[in-house]
Structures are given as C-alpha cells and as structure tokens.
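Example (one chain per record):
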Amino acid sequence: MELLLRLLLIFIKFIAFVAHALQYVFIWARGRQIKPNLPANSNPLLLLSIQELRTRLRSRQLTSVELVGAYIERIKVVNTLLNAVVESRFDAALLEAASADQLIAAAGGDADQLFAKQPLLGLPVTVKESCALSGMSFAVGSLARSERRADQDGVVVARIRAAGAIPLLVSATPEYCYSTDTDTLLNGRCRNPFDFERTPGGSSGGEGALNGAGASLFGIGSDIGGSIRIPSLFCGIFGHKPTGGVVSVTGHFPNSSDADFQQYLVLGPMTRFAVDLAQLLELMAGAEAAAQLRLHELLPLRQLQVHYALGFEGLNGGMHQAVEEDIQTAIRKAVVHLQTLGLPVQRARLAGFGDSLEIALSGIARLGQMPFVLDWERSQVWQTVMQLLRSLCGKSRHTTNALIFDLMRRTNAFMPSQRLESYRREAQTLAGQLTELLGTTGVLLFPTMHAPATRHGWTPLQLWGVDYTLLFNILGLPATHVPMGLNGQGLPIGFSVIAAPYQDRLCLRVAVELERAFGGWQPPNATRSG
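Predicted structure:
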C-alpha cells in the first residue's frame, strides 16, 4: 500500500461521511418534496427486446419506420429533461428505416436469409459520442474540440451498421471521457432518469440515461475504468465490459498506441435486455474475435460455479467507503437464487485485492500516448493544479473532474514512479490467481460500485471507489453489470458478474438468468422517490 494514497482515501472517506450527513440535514430542513418523474412510456414497442422486434419485422407485423419513429418520439420527450443527446440524425434515420422496410418487403419468403446476413436490420441504436459516427459531433465534451466531427465510422459502429442497425444520435460524455459524471461546459449537465438531481454516471452517461429512460433499444458504450458499468448501475440497465482486446477500439477518442491501453479500453453493449447482450457482443467483436468467446455454445446454467464477495475486505475494505447494504442484499439474493437452482456457491476470499487501489490507478498512470486535456497548453503539474483551482471558481475552460484525472496521471496517481512497475507485476499475479480460481466455469459476483447514483457535484467523492471497476480493466477480465431493482429512494441497485478472460459467455448467461428471476430493468416512473 502507498501511504500518501491511502491517507487521501481515508480523508475522502471522512469527507464523504460528513457530506452525506449534511445532505440528510438539508433534505430534512427543506421538507419532503415530490420529485418530478419522466413521463410514462405509452408505446408497448419500446418494451420489446431485439429478439422480439426482429421476429415482428421479419414477419412484417411491424415496420422499421414505425419502430424508429417510436424511439424518436420517446427521445424527444425525455431529452428535454435529461439532456442526454449531443446531436441527432432523426430525418436520416427515418429514411434508412424506409429503405430497410423496402428490403424486407422485397425479400418476401427469403426474409430469414436477409436477417441472417443483417441481424439488426431496421433496428435503432444510439451511440456514445466518443465512438465515432460518421458526420456527427466528435467533440467528446470538450470546448477545445467543439468543431470536431467524425470523418468516418469507428470499427464497432461500422460493424453494427453493417448488421443493419440505424443510428439515431450521438450521446453525451464527460470531457474527454475523463469523469464518472457527464457534465460539461460544452453540452451542460446530463441527468439521471430516476432522479434529476443525480448523475447518470460516466463516461457513457448519455447512453445510460437514454437506455434507463426506455429511449434506446441498445447503445454502444466504451469503458476504461467503469464507463459502461457505472452508468449501467446508476441508470438500472445491463452493460457488458468485454475481455480486454476482444473488441476493436479503432475510431474511439481518446485513444492511444500504448499496448496496455488497447487492453484496458473496451467497447461494449448497453441495453435494458440481458437476452440481447450475447448477439450484440458477437457483432461488435467481429467474427474472428467472437469465435474466441464461443457465444453460440450451449451453456447449461448448472455447469457454473459461483463465487461472491460483498466488497473489499480487511484493512483495504476499511479504508474504502462501505458498500451500501442494499447492494450487498442484492448480491445475497442472487446467491440464494442460484443456490436453489443447484449451483455450487462459496464466499470468495480475495487476499490479492489488498492493493486494489494501487493496482488500478497505477495501470492508468503508466499509460503513454494518451492525451491530456491540457496537452495543447503543454501543461505541467503546477499548471494543472492552477487550472483545477480555476475550475472550482468557474474560471477554466475545462471541467474539474477531467482536471483531477489529468492531475492523477501527471503525479503517477500520487505514487513514486519506481513503484508503478511493481504494481504491474502484482496485477499480473492477481490476474493469474483469478483466472485459476474462476477457470472455464466460474463467475464472481462483486459490487459494481459501493453506492448507487450520487448527487450532481459529489462525484469526486465517489471517484475514490473507482477501483471497484477499474481493477477489472487492468486485469483484463470481462464483467457484466446486472440491475437488481430499486432501493428505498427509488434508485437502481445491482452488481457485476465477472469471469476469467474470454469467458464472457458465463457473465452473460448469469445475467440472463437473473433478469428472468428478478425482472431486470425497471422504468423510472415505477417508483416516485421523495
């Protein structure tokens, strides 16, 4: 453990405790207020999975124009409240939907063959702005990049479009994707569909908000430290972080030629429907890479072995903010359910997690060729600190969270540079231990984060729990966030299902079972929180 880093962690834990206490005092003083909810969805088409919609499109019980139009209308209704859309292409999408309908009509009795070649034909998709969509905004939340537009599709976007999907928009991200809060000087604040006073997370925050609001059939997200899983937790949806290196990151911003970066950053699917995850992952990965994942192989649930942990343990756990009881209870409920199905279950003792924060942050600190938000100013540490102070006063062109991320990288995450390599070796050892523990049939149930969505402006406190997610990027393990209902405040809760490298199908199989058993996504207006 690193003394300075751990002192910071303990200090943040104390500040968080005081801040949460003050929040309760403020809420009590303000009195109970009914918070506004999103308008309820009245269109049953928006409650159907890809599999169900494809059946209707193939049999011509439904047209793509009807489906795309339904999602466009829902987006227009919710985006006035959520501010999740950076730029839309609704007119072009409707034209593409009409073309898809013509292809389906012309295929006649050969529609099955048509959909075999284009399994997403006529289905709408939303795209995180950092995943290049040709002709659309590519600013990625930065004032310095405000005029940037993507000159071509990124590899994953191109694959999804080749499968017949119709992009509707690009969605909001933090500046350079360097935050767990989607709130920028360029685009403003993106809001959580379950509570407008809270963040949808980041960096795939716009995708999380739209999917959680029932305004996207599925989204393309990206994740280098939890950027798919954290918004999935905060917005109550499924999100999968694939095995490192399986899905191409070409066309993503930020990017790097660093070999570690190519393993840590992943693109993956975000959706309300666990049953759709496997096919979406297959299409995003491409045929050659997908073959390594064996997604089509029959996987009887009873072949799996389940390990679980309720958070970091021992001294390390004591330094972190405690995992909220609702999240721990969700893990216990899943464990009991899987036991009743006959799966062997055991509590995991994760001794190798003692340096989780150092392992996670050192992985990011080591990255080379990855842009800083202040690169164009040739910034050094002291200049970053000055910009950070200016941002706190509203005087910077950059957001506070992005500058904190810059500062952590420039200071080696407050660790001596000579220690970074030792934590790399520790990460390799831990990855080997987990791979051996989980093997080809094991999964680990583990908190995605220690708490559900936080209030706007408080994300620097939650940032210090980022090793819950970042750790598994550094280790290269696949992870699926599974929603498990709402807590007493009406906020989504859930946890992650983790497997050994290239065993993504185990995560997805457990997600499908837990969706069946516990209902998966719930609409924001199912509960009115106060």
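Caption: The radius of gyration is 22 Å.
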